[in-house]
Amino acid sequence: MTDQYTKYYHYTVADFMLDEDFLLWLKQPDGTRNAFWNTLQMTYPHLVDKITDARKLAAALQVQKEKASDAAKDRIWNAVTSSVTPAAKLRSMKRALGWMAAAAVLLIVGGLFVFQYHRTKEVLIKTAYGEKRAVTLPDGSQVVLNANSEIRYKPRPKKNAPREVWVNGEAWFDVVHRNKSGTPVTAADRFIVHLQNMQVEVLGTTFTINTRRNQEQVVLETGKVKVQLKTRPAAVYLQPGEFIRFNKDSKTLSKATTNPVDCSLWKENRLKFNNTPLSEVIRLIEDNYGYKVNVPDSSLLTRTLGGTISSEDHQILFKALENMLDVKITITNQTITISK
Fold this sequence. Notes:
340 residues, alpha+beta, seven-stranded mixed β-sheet, seven-stranded antiparallel β-sheet, 12 helices
């Protein structure tokens, strides 16, 4: 592992609040910065909660930064940073960070009202186009959100209540298995994922969910899940390697087999194509990167693509698509034109 990642291994929330690269990511996110920080979280999952708290800290307290007097900002800054960083670094960082330092300590001195608020309210996490994000749920379950996706959950679920999350977009789950003794399943053992039209219940397993376009799809990698339409009482059980798809337009439910690992390669910044037509590739580009794609020559839509491509840099991805599909891709603002 390169030094650019290992230096963050022992970071605390305060350390992140003093890190210029971290603060620049918060203030000016882009594809490169998103890729770096999300890769860091997937490499060191124990940092996910600390990074999440630092982001909340910055977002919540930026609103209040003007309310603190200069004396209060200096007093708070000294209290927070004196035990974290050498004095010389503090002086330079103080000049560089400005409002962020005052914002960080405002939360500490003024009471943890933001975190108290999140004890009872839902947490909403969204990803932008071109961004992936690793999330650790309160029970330790791991989630990776694909681009243009969101997840909601309660950070402090009630005692003996099911673990519940709400998903829109695409997400991969690795759920902690609570019931390992073979005793009857209790409410607290259940893990439920709510979609618009379906409900997915698991005990401990890995799977991928996709709710984009006109479908809702669940692909099971390991374990066992129960899927139930909200409008139908009968449940469908999936085994590893199976997927179920609900078409929102036709209201039909279909079940088949697939390679589940291929369906979640996006979380590793890779995309697998197997005789995939250009029309499907276009949907992927629009859903993940936010571009509007135009193809003046409709005959190109039937060209197919095979193989595995890196998706870490979308410009490199587009160049690979050009070569593999023998087409020309032109980008104008947020519009892509594909031609011969």
